[in-house]
Design goal:
This protein is an alpha+beta fold. The chain is built from eleven helices and 13 strands. The strands form three sheets. A six-stranded mixed β-sheet has the order 8-9-10-13-12-11, covered by helices on one side. A five-stranded antiparallel β-sheet has the order 4-5-3-6-7, sandwiched between helices.
Length: 324
Amino acid sequence: MATDNPLVPVFTPPLATLLAHAEKLKGAPLTEAEVERVRDHAICIIMQPGDADKMTTSRGYRDVEPENCWADWHRLRVELTGNGYLPKILLCLVGGADFPAKARPILDELGLQYEFTPRDERMAKAFESSSFRVAPTLQPADFARIAEHESVLYVFSKNFPAREAPNVSQKLLQVGARLLDAGGFAMKSESSGIAHSSARWQVLAKQADNETGRAEFWAGLFDAFVFYPIQSDGDFYSCGMHLLGQPDLIAATDLAPVKGAVELFRAFAMYLLVECPDGEFASGHTFGASNNASRYRVVWEPCTGYEEDDFFFNPFGRWRFTAN
């Protein structure tokens, strides 16, 4: 008998729990074959979709997707095993001599971890190298103010799992806006390497307000925190998607020129964040930036190039674009 609500399989215990236990027994990260072996021997029960949703709510997280278990396991691995490092947002602001006195009440009110340091001669160069080349927002007047700064503020978020990323990143975006209103000159995300003018950060904070639509919300967070395309060893890649709870993006330079990489990365990120239902996109699926654009096969891979304790490291991995 046909139904609009087909029954769905649910792992009991959760596949994520079984994988975490298997890693604990092994004493080392599981291989792809080992992850799939655990999945193949796990027990499922068949449930109504509504009951399955209630089970997910009671567990506090969405279980690993069985058809994409190798990639999706890394969404939960660090959270459930304690092995490795979850993302953490670190914001850097520069200001005048009176900036600490103006900013401290805001930071203390919000209960955030922070640190003030005196003038740092490296800041002008650091902000210049972190300026977003795709759509520059730091102007000569901004660099002049940065060069004249008298104080530096670092603000830390807590470490957070993928499911908490939207709330944490939005909170830090709004906090940054308040601190800029209190006298900060400019903003830099030390967790992804992107810098913004005060005016640009304020625009993005308003864009990612809860009153805006889903597309505007995610576009604001993406533009605030994700730096791309970075070129290294024959690849273009992004940095900062881990702050949004997602794998980063990577493509060989001979596969997509810089302009193509910019368009592809942004289109795919917006697809994942705005349009794609949670867990639906799997390693090996294809994607094109538009109906008329080239399509690429997208394959998940671990994040490389950074140590696990580096702020830039993405524990959720990377989506690599390959020839279809």
